[in-house]
Amino acid sequence: MSNQLCRKISNISMSHFLYIDKNINIFEDDIPGVPKVFPWTILMKNNFIKDFPLGRLGVQSGNPDMRALLDHCFNSLGDLLFPHLNGPFQMTQHFFKTSKTLVLIECVASHPETRSSFLAAHIPLYLYPFLQTVSKTRPFEYLRLTSLGVIGALVKTDEQEVINFLLTTEIIPLCLRIMEAGSELSKTVATFILQKILLDETGLNYICQTYERFSHVAMILGKMVIALAKEQSARLLKHVIRCYLRLSDNPRAREALRQCLPDQLKDQTFAGCLKDDKSTKHWLQQLLANLESTAPQDPRITLPPLAAQ
């Protein structure tokens, strides 16, 4: 946002706001030189009337002006979430505000002008309590999925800054837990996040750096393959296979995968599921080819075969 616009914003006074009553707020149509969404960001700082502008901003989430203006509202976004993280979550009372806030946070995370500030403010850490929830009720699943969507929007940019930040947090264990026990859609988004981390060289090296990290990832992926053999999902299987293929690019991980890759990926278990998906079939063929190539065994990283459960 330009310095000129910032100066205009700083000079806005509450005289621009017309209050009809304590529940409804209407703004003048035009504040010269300032995007129309900005007054709603001002009102978000008022604890008494925060919910109404939050809803209005949620409707405007695709507005590029709003994305830039929200760069100046990080404290408000954190304030909206923190009360619900610091105590019992009252679903009927807090669900609307929390879900709308998460939509705005995803908007900020996906915008190139606000992403760096978003990471510098450690806003993603506010989302992790929602990723830690285990309730399978629809509202909690929605909050969990929306929080995953924010992280997904970050990793989709393929920016090194994003991966470096995430590797300093607990995002990988959180994603692995959801990949094991979440809904199909949550599993898909969580696996996509892991895939994007693995596709980054730093992320791949991080996961393959220790036996504990690699074995945890391999164990969860193996369990997912076994589950997918019973209830097949082409969308989820695609991300699982891509994760395996990327792991096979690391020599130590490749040696371990020769021992622990599930048999269901070696036989015709998923032939029907992948019949019309040429890219995923190619990835699977490439994975098997990588594992068939001869290489000296590295005894530092080995895993026993996964048993069917």
TrEMBL record:
<comment type="similarity">
    <text>Belongs to the CNOT9 family.</text>
</comment>
<protein>
    <recommendedName>
        <fullName>CCR4-NOT transcription complex subunit 9</fullName>
    </recommendedName>
</protein>
<dbReference type="InterPro" id="IPR016024">
    <property type="entry name" value="ARM-type_fold"/>
</dbReference>
<dbReference type="GO" id="GO:0000932">
    <property type="term" value="C:P-body"/>
</dbReference>
<dbReference type="InterPro" id="IPR011989">
    <property type="entry name" value="ARM-like"/>
</dbReference>
<dbReference type="Pfam" id="PF04078">
    <property type="entry name" value="Rcd1"/>
</dbReference>
<dbReference type="GO" id="GO:0006402">
    <property type="term" value="P:mRNA catabolic process"/>
</dbReference>
<dbReference type="InterPro" id="IPR007216">
    <property type="entry name" value="CNOT9"/>
</dbReference>
<dbReference type="GO" id="GO:0030014">
    <property type="term" value="C:CCR4-NOT complex"/>
</dbReference>
